[in-house]
Design goal:
Layout (H helix, E strand, L loop, with lengths): L31 E4 L4 E4 L2 E2 H7 L2 H10 L5 H13 L5 H9 L6 H11 L12 H26 L13 H10 L4 H14 L6 H11 L4 H13 L6 H12 L5 H10 L17 H13 L3 H25 L5 H11 L7 H20 L27
Antiparallel strand pairs: 1-2, 2-3
Helix pairs in contact: 1-8, 2-16, 3-6, 4-5, 4-6, 5-6, 5-10, 6-7, 6-16, 7-8, 8-15, 8-16, 9-10, 9-16, 10-16, 11-15, 13-15, 14-15
The structure holds coenzyme A.
């Protein structure tokens, strides 16, 4: 029978810990549940499929932060706060402009987010009450900063936010200069799907950073730094590069043989927790079919589907390797006309909801994270002056 409720376990939970903290339990949480065996994901008990279909990013962020679906007036109030926080200081725009034009957008995002602390004095207080408000500002502003980065990199004029649009609509508007209902709907869904995902590397980074009672801007910048890596959020960009490098579905078998001989891991596959099909990948794959209208995108999708077939044939049963969230998301973004360098920042724009929710959940019983490393070197060595070494 399907499990309906998970009871609280005494903390610390007994667990075996492997390398990369595999199996370690660092906190009790009510925010989200990843069932890696069955390939299921829920936020606060609500299935990701239902949220993707019926919710909005604002509502999902509220759910993650406050633990329940908002009533109409609660949602309206939350949206108003997000809207009121959208603008960013000119100093942040200038900062993005003076950094080298080929700086990775995730590095720009990290720099800009941490610099925002200087404009938000309340952020240095670090109490639960003030952090709840700062969290909302961070969730709102990261979208504006990301859009500004996209415009500046293309040598285009930065577009300021509008208050009459939803979070996703405004995000798309600030990137493209246009209000587009269809693209905004797809981005809204992508933001929901990426909003939270257990104790992943970037979320844990945020937890560790904030556990020293550092502020939310430094915390989020740390999360962005972790997310950037190709083993984490950076995989979505790599997937598109890989599919373009492969060429067509008929080139897949040959390419795959070569890669496996070199023992390369295939971007967009595998997961520490899922040893089944990632439910988010299933939703993105379905969406790909809706938006694949040009020959170029149809070819990307067909190549991806062939690669999925080959990888599952070779490693699905054997090692539990299946597509993860990053495998099909990039194709959707590409079909919507977003440039590759925006894919991972977009992930951050969504995940900031999970990062802040989990930090806020941990705060009332905050204890600084401080594990150990097992030392295995000499204990008695003489100090040798430099001229005698
Ligand atoms: N392609 C082929 N084999 C893979 C693989 C992939 N994408 N991911 C994992 N494996 C294999 C490993 O080679 C390893 O095999 P081995 O036991 O014979 O050595 C086994 O599966 C376990 O992999 P490991 O790297 O130890 O898993 P992990 O939990 O430490 O890492 C990821 C998880 C996500 C980092 C890893 O699967 C990966 O690098 N995937 C590609 C990058 C990616 O898509 N990241 C986004 C994640 S949402």
């Amino acid at each position: 029978m399907e499990k309906e409720f998970v009871g609280k376990k005494e903390f610390p939970v007994t667990c075996e810990v492997g390398r990369g903290l595999e199996g370690a339990v660092v906190n009790n949480t009510q925010i989200g549940y990843v069932d890696g065996k069955e390939g299921k994901l829920c936020y606060r008990g609500i299935r990701i499929e239902d949220l993707a279909k019926y919710s909005s990013f604002e509502e999902t962020a509220y759910l993650l932060l406050f633990g329940k679906l908002p009533k109409r007036d609660e949602l309206d109030g939350f949206k108003e706060k997000l809207k009121a926080s959208r603008s960013i200081p000119q100093g942040i725009v200038e900062l993005i402009k003076i950094l080298p034009r080929d700086t990775h957008p995730m590095d720009l995002l990290m720099s800009a987010m941490v610099a925002l602390a200087g404009y938000d004095k309340e952020s240095q207080e670090v109490t639960l009450e003030s952090e709840r408000e700062v969290a909302i500002r961070v969730i709102s502003k990261i979208a504006t900063v990301t859009a500004a980065i996209s415009r500046i990199r293309k040598e285009e004029k930065v577009i300021g936010p509008r208050e009459d649009l939803s979070h996703a609509e405004n995000f798309v508007y600030m990137i493209t200069g246009k209000v587009d209902e269809e693209i905004s709907k797809a981005i809204d869904m992508a933001l929901i799907l990426h909003a939270d995902h257990g104790m992943n590397a970037s979320t844990f980074t945020c937890m560790v950073l904030h556990s020293s009672l550092s502020d939310f801007y430094a915390t989020i910048a740390g999360g962005i730094g972790s997310l950037k890596g190709p083993l984490h959020g950076g995989a979505n960009e790599r997937v598109i590069r890989m599919l373009q490098e492969i060429g067509t579905p008929s080139d897949v078998e040959e390419w795959y043989k070569r890669e496996r001989k070199l023992r390369h891991k295939i971007p967009g596959f595998g997961h520490r927790v899922y040893h089944a099909y990632d439910p988010r990948a299933r939703i993105f794959k379905e969406y790909c079919h809706k938006v694949a209208t040009t020959e170029r995108i149809k070819n990307l999708l067909a190549t991806a589907e062939k690669l999925e077939e080959v990888e599952i044939r070779e490693l699905g049963e054997k090692k539990g390797i299946f597509p993860n969230v990053d495998f099909y998301s990039g194709i959707v973004y590409k079909a919507l006309g977003l440039e590759k360098s925006l894919f991972t920042p977009l992930f951050a724009v969504a995940r900031v909801a999970g990062w802040t929710a989990r930090v806020l959940e941990y705060m009332p019983e905050n204890r600084i994270f401080r594990p150990r490393a097992e030392y295995y070197g000499p204990l008695k060595q003489e100090y040798v002056p430099i001229e005698k070494r």
